[in-house]
Amino acid sequence: MVKRSKLAGKNRVGKDIPASPRPPVPASAAAPLVAVIMGSASDWETMRHTDQTLTDFGVPHECRVMSAHRTPTLSAEFASSAEARGLEVVIAAAGGAAHLAGVMAAHTLLPVLGVPMKSDALNGLDSLLATVQMPGGIPVGTLAIGKAGAVNAALLAVAILANSRPQLRARLRDFRAEQEKKVRAARLD
Ligand code: AIR
Questions:
Q1: Is there a contact between 79 and 103 (Cβ–Cβ < 8 Å)?
Q2: pTM above 0.90, yes or no
Q3: Which among 36, 42, 129 is the best mutation to test ligand 1's pocket, defined by most ligand atoms within 8 Å of the CB?
């Protein structure tokens, strides 16, 4: 892929999402804490919401395309080296026979969050079942289908990182408070 973002307020590198390995990270870039990977560039329309949410929280992350089926070796290598590269959470999105999150989980001890993509054939039910129905022993924390899952995966990653980062925890608390304020203030015309 492609797209790698740094802490909020700083620059981003890459807008497109190629299926090739990420180019060398610029020296000034913060090391990513979260990897956002997806089975196809066609998933980006949904997964851009994960990217945006992590950016809003100032979490260094990288976004890439790789496929459990089309690039099996790359996927295994990526997951196997993720922890050594300093990543702390992997978010994996795929649609249909969505095995990407499971493959990630099989190759790393890092927490893996799965986002099922809405599919043409079965509206995402296939993606959901393929992602959530992991055999006991290799967990994937599976979120909702589509945009809600994409946003929540980022929020859950933030919550995981916030356990050891008080500043991030404060941001998450502020986010919740702001959200509550909006709902309380909602008026129906
Ligand atoms: N996919 C890609 N490799 C394995 C899977 N399961 C998924 C992608 C995408 C869907 O297949 O995650 O949601 C369709 O991909 P494409 O490239 O045909 O648009």
A1: yes
A2: no
A3: 42
- Residue 64 forms part of a structural domain: yes
Query: What is the predicted pLDDT for the residue at 129?
Result: 98
Query: Residue 104: which domain range?
Result: 9-185
Q: Are 108 and 84 in contact (CB under 8 A)?
A: no
In single-letter form, the type of residue at position 12 comes to R
**What is the structure's pLDDT at 3?**
53
Minimum-distance ligand 1 atom for the alpha carbon of 94: 12
Is 121 in contact with 115 (CB distance < 8 Å)? no
Strands of the sheet containing 3-5, edge to edge, are: 12-13, 3-5, 61-65, 34-38, 89-95, 112-117, 141-142
Question: Residue 61 maps to which CATH number?
Answer: 3.40.50.1970
Beta bridge mates, 94: 116
Mean pLDDT for 103-122 is 98
Residue 2: inside a domain, yes or no? Answer: no
DSSP state of 150: H
Report whether 115 contacts 93 (CB < 8 A). yes
64-82 CB burial, b ≥16 within 10 A, e <16: bbbbbeebeebbbebbeeb
How far apart, in whole angstroms, are the C-alpha atoms of residue 76 and residue 34?
17
In a domain, 83, yes or no: yes
Residue 98 lies in a domain: yes
**13-46 residue pLDDT tens:** 333 444 444 443 333 378 999 999 999 999 999 9
Ligand 1 contact, 97 CB (< 6 A): yes
